[in-house]
Design brief:
This protein has nine helices and ten strands. The protein has about 270 residues and is of the alpha+beta class. It folds into two domains: about 10-145, no CATH class; about 210-270, no CATH class.
Length: about 270
Amino acid sequence: METFRPQSEDRDWIRQAWIKIIRVTLGLPVEPLGFEHLPAIGRVPITSPAALRSLAKLNRGKKYRTRIKPFDFLLSCHVKPFGYPPEVDPEKFHLVAPYVPDPECWVDLPWIDQYSGKQYEITTEGFHGSRGVARVKTYGEVLREYESHLGAKSADAKGKPSGKQTVGLLRRRHVQVERIIYIGKESNRLEEIEAGVIHSPESVYTEYPDPSRDEWQTRILPILKKIPIAALMRVSGRSRSMLVRAMAGRSRPRRKNQQLLKSILHRLGVI
C-alpha cells in the first residue's frame, strides 16, 4: 500500500476500512490494513486566540514567516480512556502539534497541551499513559470502535433505537419535536468538538430562551405545583426552601435541579 495520507484526495483507505468491517461481521478472514498502527490524527484550523497562545513556545525565536499563524492547520490526536498522563486532568487536556502531512513523523512531533502549554510525547504502544507521555488511539483502534458504535440516528427492525448489539438492516428513526431552543452562532465551534479540541458541547452553546416556549415555565412547573412539597422533598432530596421558591416562581432552579425534577416527573409518568 502507498503512503497513507488521510487528508489527500485518494480516499481508497475508506473503502478498505469498510470492506474489513464487513468481512469481520461475516466471519471472513481479514488482514491488518497498512495504516492501522498509525496514531489517529485529525486536522483542525487555528481559529481562536487560545489555540494560538498554547503554541507560544513553538513560535518563540522564529521569524514571522516560519511561525504558526492564525488559520494555519494543526494536528490533533485522540487519547485513549486510560491513556492520559497521571499528572493531568482529562477534562482539561488536549494535544495539538504543527501540521505535518507525513504520518510516519506524527509520533515524533512536539505535542503541546492546549490548556497548559506544556509539551508531551505520544505513543501507540501499551495500555495507558505515563508521566509526560500520552497513549493515543490508532486508526485500527478507532475502526474497531466504529464496528459497534451506537447509531443515534438509526432504528432496528422493530423501530427501536439501535444499540451496540443491533444487527441487520437499519432504518431512520422517527423524530418528534419536543421543544424549540434558539442557539447563537457560537455553535459553529462544533467542528472543534468533533476534533476533540473542545470536550463539552455545552461550552460552545449560547441559548436564547423564548418565554412562550420555555419548557420549565410552560410544561414542568405547572405539573410540579400539583405535587405536595413534602412529596417532592422526599423523592428529590432537595431542601424545602429551594422547592418553595421554585414553585412560587421567585427563583429558577439550577440546570441540574431542573433536570432532576424533570426526571422525577418522567418516573411518575406525568410527562
